[in-house]
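Side project, low priority. Logging it here so it doesn't get lost.
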Amino acid sequence: MTRFSIIIVWCLIIVSCTPYKAGRIDDKKVIHDYSSNVSQRSGQFRSAAYLIDLRINDDGKKFSVTTEVYFSGDSVGFYGRGYVGKGAFKGNVINDVVTVYFSSENEYFSGQLAELNSGSECSSPGEVLLYVLSLLSGRIDTYEVDDFAVFYDNPWRLKYQDGRFDRTILLNKRRLPKKEKLIDSNCGDSIVVNYGSHSTKYPFYKTNDILYYNDNYNFRARGFVREQQYNIQLKKRKFEVVFPASARRIESI
């Protein structure tokens, strides 16, 4: 897998839900309160900007990238610097099409985003990291009570099926997420999201870091969120990718 495929895949929301059987009837208040918080947060989301330090170990090859990611409506923009191998890059995702330009190489790529596979067919780490970005986007679906099951040994731990991932959410006493774990044991994928500060107003909670690893590929990527802002005015240029007519198109990233 190419190094850029590791970066570009922080760029789209891919969410589908197949519910578990719901937990005990007296646990439904916990689930309902969490679902209400998620719905309120999603309803108030208009835009977001992140500055992320991404540290990667790809089968013993280590490198890091400082990446800016922007969300507004259905559009995603991103910019990376300090990228090893291709220099700086800038790209966007609009209408499920990804475009990226490598200025130092005067090369560009444009193509449809691959969707996460479901069932027994596994995705590469690059494809899985597409899903990781959905956890930053703020565009989180609203779930019904019956989508979740509560662990009987811990009423602050929820579980449901999200695509091909078994997803567990650990809540605090306000029933806001402290940590999320997404596991696909069949394909060896694990995602851990740690949340930081919580408040009674939007955005309610913020992301500290996200870890993704796959032992089958000997691959680990951890993104440390240095800065995050919500519902700010984002300039149009954050989502524009302009390159000269002389740029050479490449077939893969």
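Brief comment: Residues 43 and 139 are 8 Å apart (CA to CA).
Revisit when time allows.
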